């Protein structure tokens, strides 16, 4: 398995196009100055040994050296040994509501952003379990399967937007149903669903679906995002900021519906929590609930030994820097000799 030990250093690669752009700009300014001075022919007569190409060669060597240096600092590694590791946990889906009402700003910065951050906290707190991510609005769809790759699960949460929903609306039952169909059929009791939503349930079947899931051995927990006072729902209409409006043209106010969420959690054998304040304490409370569920054993094979190859890239970078340092801006002796011969031949012809 290949990986970078310090992958954050690879962000420095974004500087390479900037350096190339600065070089191109400097070269244009240089050519403009030469044209004002008298043009390239005058410069070639005054400095006949100056190469026209080595500026590009030397800069190319510097750019390659920087590329290899950044890769070396990130330390590319290759896994050499796999080791079986036993761990205990449950299968857990985090279902995130991405309907338009989650853009309401009655909690800062918005319901959706607060829920996304809390979901990422949950992934951290519940590491050791198999965690999957489901997004839902009118329909539900998976964005991360049950996995122990917690970085991938957090990435799936952080990039969630209402634009990913094919159709707007809120159907809590669709999220529960999809999670049930995604669990291992052989797993009868080691599973749970945590639903992050403002409680709007347009089809009204969330509680019934939660009860059916609980009868199948799944615990359903709900986390309410929003406030009782509610807020208007901001939208962008043809580049203009406005609020979502009903048929009469009045702004739609969306409110947290704790009654629905409490009923879903009760029927699902879980509990309801409010995210209005103290997200850290809420994550700990949910972890205690999940930890109380009977665990099952998982066996996975992980790479435990990695060979580092940073030396190759650092060595190549310094070699290129040395070549660039030793490379002169003058033309080679062979090119110079050919130029003299051509000049003599022209004189003889004349």
Q: What is the terminal separation in angstroms?
A: 70 Å
Structural shape: elongated
Order of helices and strands: EHHHEEHEEHHEHEEEEEHEHEHH
State the helix count: 11
Strand order of the largest sheet: 5-4-3-6-7-12
Structural class: alpha/beta
Write up what this structure looks like.
The protein is α/β, with parallel strands linked by helices. 44% of the residues lie in helices and 24% in strands. The chain has 11 helices and 13 strands. Strands 5-4-3-6-7-12 form a 6-stranded mixed sheet. Helix 3 runs antiparallel to helix 10, helix 4 runs antiparallel to helix 5 and helix 7 runs parallel beside helix 8. The radius of gyration is 31 Å and the shape is elongated. The mean pLDDT is 85.
Summarize the entry for a quick read:
This protein is of the alpha/beta class.
SSE order and pairing:
Layout: E1 2-4, H1 15-37, H2 40-46, H3 54-74, E2 76-89, E3 91-97, H4 111-125, E4 130-136, E5 140-147, H5 150-158, H6 172-182, E6 191-197, H7 206-215, E7 218-224, E8 231-232, E9 234-237, E10 240-243, E11 253-254, H8 258-267, E12 269-274, H9 279-291, E13 296-308, H10 310-326, H11 333-349
Parallel strand pairs: 3-4, 3-6, 6-7, 7-12
Antiparallel strand pairs: 1-2, 2-13, 4-5, 8-11, 9-10
Helix pairs in contact: 1-3, 3-10, 4-5, 4-9, 6-7, 7-8
């Amino acid at each position: 398995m290949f990986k970078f030990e310090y992958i954050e250093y690879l962000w420095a690669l974004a500087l390479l196009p900037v350096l190339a752009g600065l070089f191109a700009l400097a070269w244009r300014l240089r050519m403009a100055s030469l044209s004002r001075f008298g043009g390239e022919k005058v410069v070639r007569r005054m400095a006949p040994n100056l190469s026209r190409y080595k500026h590009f060669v030397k800069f190319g060597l510097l750019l390659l050296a920087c590329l290899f240096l950044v890769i070396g600092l990130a330390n590319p590694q290759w896994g050499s040994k796999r080791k079986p590791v036993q761990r205990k946990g449950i299968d857990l889906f985090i279902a995130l509501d991405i309907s338009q009402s989650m853009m309401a700003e009655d909690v800062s910065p918005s319901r959706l952003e607060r829920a996304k951050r809390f979901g990422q906290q949950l992934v951290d707190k519940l590491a050791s379990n198999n965690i999957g991510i489901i997004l839902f609005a009118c329909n539900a769809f998976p964005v991360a399967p049950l996995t122990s790759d917690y970085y991938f699960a957090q990435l799936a949460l952080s990039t969630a937007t209402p634009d990913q929903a094919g159709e707007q609306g809120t159907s809590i039952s669709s999220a529960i149903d999809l999670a049930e169909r995604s669990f291992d059929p052989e797993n009868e009791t080691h599973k749970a669903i945590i639903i992050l939503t403002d409680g709007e349930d347009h089809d009204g079947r969330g509680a019934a679906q939660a009860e059916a899931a609980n009868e199948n051995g799944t615990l359903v927990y709900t986390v309410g995002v929003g406030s009782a006072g509610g807020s208007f729902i901001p939208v962008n209409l043809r580049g203009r900021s406005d609020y979502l409006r009903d048929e009469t043209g009045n702004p739609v106010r969306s409110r947290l519906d704790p009654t629905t969420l409490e009923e879903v959690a009760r029927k699902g054998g879980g509990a309801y929590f409010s995210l209005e304040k103290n997200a850290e304490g809420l994550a700990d409370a949910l972890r205690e609930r999940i930890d109380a569920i009977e665990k099952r054993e998982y066996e996975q094979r992980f790479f435990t030994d990695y060979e580092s190859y940073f030396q190759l890239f650092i060595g190549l970078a310094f070699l290129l820097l040395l070549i660039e340092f030793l490379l002169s801006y003058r033309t080679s002796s062979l090119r110079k000799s050919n130029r003299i011969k051509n000049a003599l031949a022209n004189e003889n012809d004349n």
